[in-house]
Amino acid sequence: METLISSWIGVIPAACVALCLLTIPGFLVVMAARARLFTAVGLSGPVSATIVAVSGVAAPHLGLGWDVLTVSFGTVIAAAVSFVVGLIIARSTVVRSIDWKATRKSENVPEQTGRKLLPGAVRREAVSFGAVALAACFIGFRFLQIFQRPEFLSQTADNIFHLNVVRYIQENDEGSILTAGGVQGNGPEFYPAVWHSAVALVADTAQVGIPEAANCVNIAIGCVLWPIGAVFLARVLFGSKALLLLSTGVAASAFSAYPYLLVDWGVLYPNFYAMAFVLPAVAAATRVFGRNARGTDREQISTHIWLLLLVIPGLTLAHPNALLVFIVAVLPLVLGAYVRCGVRLFAQQHARARLGKTALFAGVGLLGVMGLAVAWVGLRPLPLGDFANTWQPYQTTAQAIGEVLLTTHAGRNAAWATAVLVLAGVVSLLRERESRWYIVSYLLVASLFVFASGVENSPARTFLTGGWYDDQNRLAAGAAILAVPLAAQGMVVAARSLTHGLQRLRVPVRPAAAVASLIVLGTTFVVSQDTAVRPSVQKAMKAYSLGPNSDIMSTNELELYQQIEELVPEEAVVAGNPWDGSAWVYMVTGRTVVFPHVQTLMTEDRAIVAASLNRAYFDPQVCQAVDDLGIEYAVTSEELIYLPGNPANEMYPGITGLDEAPGFEKVAEVGQVELFRITACD
Q: Which of 34, 111, 527, 538 would bridge with 86, disulfide CB 3.0–4.6 Å?
């Protein structure tokens, strides 16, 4: 344990930079809109993502590079706009606000002064931050176990792309999501690279390597942004009682599918980042469309609408998958608000007024349906007519339903603690008129998981889950996220029942409540960590390494790649089999590689190089391709290759045996890893 923690001391400044970057811009902008403290904290993550994304797109057009000053400039502008919007809202509603206060006085409703509210408000905020801190400690310990050391990196195919995108942003001094896909060598392309832009900023600002920056950003997301969003939604849905908030903190660390799964499987770092914003976005939507919103004055409603508009871009641009989860989650909420408006409309007695409002009501409904259809189709990663599913179901429908009930996934052991608590939370919400819609939200997302994991391949299945690549892992994370407030509510129900039991044993009320709360919180933590989290963490640890036998890049390969920065000119291009780790030459050195990913699009020239580079001395066609691509060097490795037995590994026979082929001069060697200069085409 001491060794585990000591290895991370050197990157504490980078972790602080990551936390500040991911929260402070959004916090300042929301506060500028005259929002309350914890609202600003709760929405700081997604609004910060909005600022980072928009700043990255705007910076090149303003002649700015990609650094902290650019994001600071964007934050100042966004805060100024938010302040002006808040001022306009306040002034436009001042008359109605005065009338509302007069009504309260006429109804003999006592006004609560700031002095009377202060102790309660301080206590509420303290407990909220305490709940976040509790979750941060639990999740942080697990993340340190998963990542093991700051320089370790996930040795998985998707991470080749993610870390190379970070280097691409650094090399081009441009954090735009409109060009980040250009890392594949096919020209500027859109990619939701807000996570990558943030990692690049942390690496440059804190002067750490890309793997260290990535791990620090992920720790900030999982340990801080995620529990903040969960606690914020719990407060909006169920209130701010201390037990509920602390229960939310424990529940946020209790599910294996989030936050742990998405830093293991894939890895899906952008999804991991964006999914942390789903619950705060749902909270913002609840403030606008919920039943309690009717009792809120117009100024607050207008402010909440503005805050929701600030949240949506960050949620979407971090990764569209999260926006789809949000849409499904708030669908019952929005439909409920729409139906209530319709009921009030048709209850009006004046036919002429009702006719005009009916037309508006129908128009809004039609626009809503059209918007949903456009989002559902437009955010699909594959064309609507493409039913060649990326991921196939792995179980029967009955088994998938069983996994939902047992709050597990991927054939893992049942998570009994959270399963019982989620069920108790659902039952308790059936009696809550204001929050009952949330049960439907959870069931809708859980049903999508059932379709992805347990329904046979069909156009209907792909239409419903194609927005997530028909991938059960992404939807398992979505279901777990929405289950957290339900589990927290279930813990409150369990503590209440245990308190009543202790009272029957003649234990006084307050001691009984305290003991019951500690028992429920402690039992949930211990059982969930042992049955669900610990096995998930142990599995995730296997992906993170940097040693002699690492799956993609070994220590020998890293050592040679670090020499390339001195041995290879900046304009030179390097060839190599991406399956043996050479795709990360770009991440380590910034030198362009022909094959930056294991799924690099094969052009005619690339195919020639992959098949016949070692014949360059004899085949003019190979030299022509080498010249066209600007290749001057090649890397080979006889060490372990990623996913042995995969036929794609064998697509690069031309980048083998270079030490025996004429026209290749060995420049450097570390173990079985070698760097050659191509002289055959001189």
A: 34
Give the pLDDT score at 116. 46
Residue matched to tokens 């990913």: 597
pLDDT digit string, tens, across residues 619-658: 999 999 999 999 999 999 988 788 888 888 889 999 999 9
Q: Full-prediction pTM beyond 0.85? A: yes
| Shared-domain flag, residues 567 and 642 | yes
Task: List Cα–Cα distances, 676 to 108, 564, 613, 635, 679, in angstroms.
Answer: 87, 11, 12, 6, 9
* Helix axis angle, 210-220 to 114-147, nearest 10°: 140
Q: For residue 76, with 0-12 CB atoms within 10 Å meaning exposed, 13-18 middle and 19 or more buried, which class applies?
A: middle
Rg (CA), the chain: 27
Dihedral angle of Cα 441, 442, 447, 452, to the nearest 10 degrees? 110
How does residue 97 score in pLDDT terms, banded at 50, 70 and 90? very low
Those residues with Cβ within 8 angstroms of residue 50's Cβ, 6 or more apart along the chain or in another chain? 26, 78, 310, 311, 313, 314, 317
Residue 16 located in a structural domain: yes
Range of the domain at 41: 2-108+121-348
Spatial CB neighbours of 16, under 8 Å, sequence gap ≥ 6:
none
Residues 72 and 195 in one domain: yes
From CA 6, how far away is CA 92, in angstroms rounded? 55
Query: How many C-beta atoms lie closer than 10 Å to residue 458's C-beta?
Result: 12
As a whole number of angstroms, the distance between CA 629 and CA 618 comes to 18
Residue 678: phi, psi to the nearest 5?
A: -85, 110
Characterize the bridge pairing of strands 673-678 and 631-637. Answer: antiparallel
Going by C-alpha positions, the residue among 537, 161, 473, 158 that lies closest to residue 325 is 473
